[in-house]
Structures are given as C-alpha cells and as structure tokens.
Specification:
About 40% of the residues lie in helices and about 5% in strands. By secondary structure, it is mostly helical. Strands 1-2 form a two-stranded antiparallel ribbon.
Length: about 90
C-alpha cells in the first residue's frame, strides 16, 4: 500500500488563497496555508487582502497568532500566542 503524502502548506503558492477551490485545496488545507502565512509573517507583507483576511481569521479564532515574533510590512510587531494569552488573562481579571 502506498504511503499517503503529507500536505506541506509551504508548497502552495500564496495566490492560491484567493481561490482555493480552483487549486483543489480542502478547507483544512486552506486554513493550514493561511496559518503558515501568519506563522512566517508573509501575509503582512503582501496585498492588503491577505493581511485583512488573516486578521479576520485570527479574530474569529480560525487561526492562531504565531509562536515567534513576526512583523508587518511597516515593521510593527505582530503579537505572539503568549502575548495574546497574557493580554486576555489581564482583561478577564480587570
């Protein structure tokens, strides 16, 4: 039996996210590509569509903030998962 090849989100061209169905991406694969773009910081340096969509997905809880520090196109820091968790904890206690 042939071993199933593991999906690598880094192998998908970023422009595939504009129309994932035409590239044959499942919903799970599409989310993995978006997450990879957030983790690497790539989405913040592209056209506004990518950054806005990624931020909407972060706000909706579909994506997670990156574990390591990344920056947007202008050099502004993107919060890490730990920073977001800490901020939410502070908001809950106040």
């Amino acid at each position: 039996m042939a071993k199933k090849k593991r999906f690598d989100p880094a192998s998908v061209p970023i422009y595939a996210l504009e129309d994932p169905e035409s590239f044959g991406l499942t919903e799970r694969q599409t989310i993995a590509v978006w997450q990879h773009g957030v983790d690497t910081g790539m989405v913040w340096g592209l056209q506004g569509f990518y950054g806005r969509t990624a931020q909407d997905m972060l706000n909706a809880g579909i994506l997670k903030y990156p574990k390591k520090r990344t920056h947007d196109y202008y050099g502004n820091p993107i919060p890490t998962q730990a920073e977001v968790k800490k901020r939410r904890k502070l908001q809950e206690t106040s």
